[in-house]
Each structure stands twice: as C-alpha cells, then as structure tokens.
Specification:
Length: 183
C-alpha cells in the first residue's frame, strides 16, 4: 500500500523537474519571438549598400526602374513584403539623388494581378528601351524558419550585367509572415 503513493510521489517529482526545465526564469518569456524588425531601416540600409557596392557609375540622364522582389521559389510571384521592400528601396535611392521611375503608372512591364511588377532578364533590354532606363533594381526573397533572406541587384539593361548586389536577412515575426501570406 505504501509503495503506490511513493511511486506516485516519485513520478510527480520527476514530472516537476522536467516541467521546471521547460519554464523560463522569472522575468523572461518562455519562447521569445524574434525582435520586430524595422523594415524601413533594413530597406534603406540595403539601398545604401547597393550604392556602396556599385562597380560603375550609373548614368544620371536615365532613371532606375524598381521591380517588385520575387519569391525565389516562384519567380513569377511576389507578396506584400516583396512590393513593400521595392517601394522602400526606391524611396531611399530617390533620397540619395538617383532618378527613379514609378512603373506602376505604366503598363509595359510584366504585371500579374496581386503580384507586382516583375522584370525578366530576357525582357530587360526591351523594358529599358521603353522606359529609357539604364538599369533595373530587382531581387528575390526566400522564407526560412523565422528569417527572410533578401537579395537585391542593380542590373544594366543593355547587357544584363550585375552592377551591384546586396544580400541581407530579415527576422520574421508575425507581421512579416502576414506580409508573406504565411500566417
């Protein structure tokens, strides 16, 4: 009769130790969410990085064309996040004195409803001619657990040469995931 209460007490003690290992110390959250990223700051830093990494001067008489970032696993698809980063990068380049063309006002770039503006490398020369653009800012993003990896490039439309590139990571909180339609 005594053995059963001892077994129960021992089981409860082991369970208590195991549960204590799962509980965070006082004052700390049990499972911290990644810090909420300042997307504007990250996008502005990326645009500054593109300019800093530029291998040659951009023509000042022709504007840059900014394309929505594409999902790396489906290059014909973007998201709210891909469109927003493109907007913010374009804003920063404009603040830095670069001429930027707003392509949403024109219908000559490949546009898929709900996806954004895309620039396909095979169409770059034609798009550059139509928009009188020397270079295009384009990029991709990839979702990995709790992180978004972004790659941006400035591409010369005449020959498709990459003039600059910049890669970075965005911590993925619920807000970022919602912009990817992942939450």
């Amino acid at each position: 009769m005594i053995a059963r209460p001892l077994r129960t007490a021992a089981a409860l003690a082991v369970a208590g130790v195991l549960c204590a290992a799962c509980v965070a110390p006082p004052g700390r959250p049990a499972r911290p969410d990644p810090p909420t990223p300042d997307l504007v700051q990250l996008s502005y830093h990326a645009a500054d990085g593109l300019l800093a990494n530029l291998r040659t001067e951009l023509r000042t008489d022709r504007p840059l064309l900014i394309a929505s970032l594409a999902d790396i696993d489906a290059l014909d698809r973007s998201s709210t996040l891909g469109r927003l980063i493109a907007e913010q990068v374009g804003s920063r380049l404009s603040q830095r004195g670069k001429r930027v063309t707003e392509i949403k006002l024109r219908g000559t770039v490949l546009v898929k409803r709900g996806s954004g503006e895309f620039v396909l490398s095979r169409d770059a020369a034609e798009i550059g001619r139509l928009h009188e653009t020397a270079a295009v800012v384009a990029g991709t993003y990839a979702y990995a657990w709790r992180s978004i990896y972004v790659g941006l490039r400035i591409i010369r439309v005449a020959d498709g040469a990459v003039l600059s590139s910049y890669d970075y990571r965005i911590p993925a909180d619920y807000g970022i995931l919602a912009m990817l339609n992942e939450y």
